[in-house]
Specification:
single chain, about 260 residues, alpha/beta, 11 strands, about 40% helix, globular, Phosphatase_SCO2771, Putative phosphatase
């Protein structure tokens, strides 16, 4: 498949609503910004926040980092992700991944809380990392816990070296940080050189001081705050649950960026 140019990728992101006028509503975005400002654990993704992150601070950061509407008076209806910010962050992520792959015997851990969307990106990055000689880690496989919002245990399970949360044979959506915290605890001092993840998987890794890059939707501000505080190296803003095939041009662009840096 052909590599899209930057302009072609921008057009594709807008057409598929990965960026541009995204499906996430303004009301949902603002509600999550307020929840993070109130330090709701469900929205912190395993990160501890420094002082000063008020609702207005978070909205200002999200306008800068993700391209949501900056006007606090815009309270309902359409919200946006700036496709150029998505592309810029994708390029920055590729540079970080390439930098790790250039090192001797790199060790990488991948995980996703969005198996119906972002999994395809993680699988592509896992293939690339293996091809380039990286060791992909799989700690705490089959570790189980009682999480919030469901009445039975869930467990960590891997598919082609990408960690996800399993619920009786089905990979499920999660924002929880606990699975990554369990993985880090099992690894002890033998930590990865890089974590590629999203949601609580990324937040917990960044909080632990591991070099981390991640993906986040416009209603998931925690990773952007983590990036602003220096705990997350790069956060790519995008709609995290469009049709998996629609991520294909973004994947090709990201993989090409990594390869160009090797």
């Amino acid at each position: 498949m052909t590599l899209p140019s930057r302009d072609e990728l921008r057009d594709h992101l807008v057409r598929t609503r990965i960026a541009g006028d995204v499906a996430t509503s303004r009301e949902n975005n603002l509600d999550h910004y307020r929840s993070l400002a109130n330090r709701d654990p469900r929205h912190m993704f395993g990160l501890s926040l420094g002082e000063g992150w008020s609702y207005r601070d978070i909205l200002e950061l999200m306008a800068k980092s993700a391209g949501v509407v900056a006007d606090p008076g815009h309270r309902e209806g359409q919200d946006t992700i700036d496709p150029d910010r998505t592309i810029d962050a994708t390029e920055a992520m590729g540079d970080v991944i390439a930098g790790v792959l250039r090192t001797e015997n790199p060790r990488i851990l991948l995980a996703t809380g969005h198996p119906t969307g972002l999994l395809v990106i993680h699988l592509a990055l896992a293939r690339l990392a293996r091809e380039r000689g990286a060791t992909l880690l799989g700690p705490a496989e089959d570790w189980t816990y009682w999480g919030s919002g469901f009445g039975r245990k869930r467990k960590i399970r891997y598919l082609d070296d990408v960690a996800m949360l399993d619920d009786r044979g089905a990979f499920v959506h999660t924002h929880d940080a606990a699975p990554m915290e369990a993985m880090i605890a099992e690894m002890g001092d033998d930590r990865p050189d890089l974590v590629i993840a999203d949601h609580g998987w990324a937040g917990a890794a960044g909080e632990a001081g591991i070099l981390t890059v991640g993906f986040a939707d416009s209603n998931d501000p925690a990773l952007f705050v983590g990036e602003a505080e220096g705990k997350i190296a790069v956060t790519v803003p995008l709609d995290d649950n469009v049709l998996p095939r629609d991520y294909a041009p973004l994947i090709r662009y990201l993989v090409a960026r990594v390869v160009s840096g090797l």
